[in-house]
Amino acid sequence: MSEETITEILPPIRHWPALDLNGVVFDPVLTELMREGPVTRIRLPHGEGWAWLVTRYDDVRTVTEDPRFSREAVMDRPVTRLTPHFVRRCGAVASLDPPHHTRLRRSAAPAFSAEGVERVREKARRMLDELVDELLQDGPPADLTAAVLSPFPAAVLCALMGVPAADRHTMHAWTRLILSSSYGAGAGARARDEMGAYFADLIGLREGAAGEDVASLLGAAVGRGEVTPAEAAGFAVLLQVGGAAVTDNSGQLFYLLLTRPGLAERLRAEPELRPRAVEELLRYIPHRNTVGLARIALEDVGIRGVRIRAGDAIYVSYLSANRDPDVFPYPETIDFSRDPNPHVSFGSGPHHCPGGTLARLVTGLLVEALLDRVPGLRPAVPPEQVPFRKGSSIRGPEALPVTW
């Protein structure tokens, strides 16, 4: 971009509160920010100052893939943010830039590859069949979240991570404390420390053992001197907590299917549509509140005629990128025939979520099992009475009352 195209006029700063939204309602503040311009300025509920926000698909890809925007540099700056507390953890993979970030992610990559995830498919299918058997045996009404949508993704993730079945409940409780601001700053930090200590012990026990789960792979990497024990434990915490998004995506997905019954009926009648439908629903679902982690510009960069100065904080919105009409015609429409569908629900660039393949496996199995085995599945309460989680960065139903 040439110097002549850069404007020095700064857009106004918009306050972006953390709204507790129900269902799949799209954040009204984000809608306004998208209308105001592709590059705007925001102030989030906590932290200091303001930050840039990019909302268009191409710009989100640019910022997330350009090494001139650094995650690591955020460690030195009290940037405006969603959460009331920000625990600076030097060396955590979410706060690293390549090549250190690449080195750490490589250590567990085989578990999240297509082959690694496929390895747990049959075990996952058996676990899901048992949960659906229990659902049908207990009879309606039921809480689909408690009965299936929460325990199943958590169990599959724990299997992939190498966490014993007896520890799944504890892992789930820690994750909720980490992701929620409702319990205070101390509760989330303590939960993260406890989970980190747990994984440090588990990885240490697996250090000399052969295995394909994440704990074993990280233990082997520690044994080879490729990563430190602290790096391995921190990475495991990030993967475990990040996997919670799979659970909540499933909850929102089934809320959407059951409250718009025409969608579920079509997928029952045309099962060949399901893989493409899952991709479209993942694009459409607003899976989080506001934005994730910031980046810092390491030098002046021009985006859409706006100068992002060295040292400025900048956020991207994957939710708005998934509604960019230049990439997704009629973005507010759920279109199971949408092709191509290059959504960025799992992020973009070096920090993209490694669990995308796992999420697709879990979601596909859930759609198959619940639509086929419980053909009369429907909400037991009006849609507006479904309770959604409060004070959490990841959106999803607290409970999903159903009958059949």
Description:
This protein is of the alpha+beta class and 404 residues long. The protein contains 16 helices and eleven strands. It has helices at residues 28-36, 57-65, 100-112, 114-118, 121-138, 144-149, 151-161, 168-179, 185-205, 214-223, 229-242, 244-259, 261-269, 274-284, 318-321, 356-373, and strands spanning 13-15, 39-43, 51-54, 69-70, 142-143, 295-297, 301-303, 306-308, 313-316, 378-379, 401-403. The chain starts with 12 loop residues before the first strand and ends with a strand.
How would you summarize the topology of this molecule?
Blueprint: E1 13-15, H1 28-36, E2 39-43, E3 51-54, H2 57-65, E4 69-70, H3 100-112, H4 114-118, H5 121-138, E5 142-143, H6 144-149, H7 151-161, H8 168-179, H9 185-205, H10 214-223, H11 229-242, H12 244-259, H13 261-269, H14 274-284, E6 295-297, E7 301-303, E8 306-308, E9 313-316, H15 318-321, H16 356-373, E10 378-379, E11 401-403
Helix pairs in contact: 3-10, 5-16, 7-12, 8-9, 9-10, 9-11, 10-11, 12-13, 12-16, 14-16
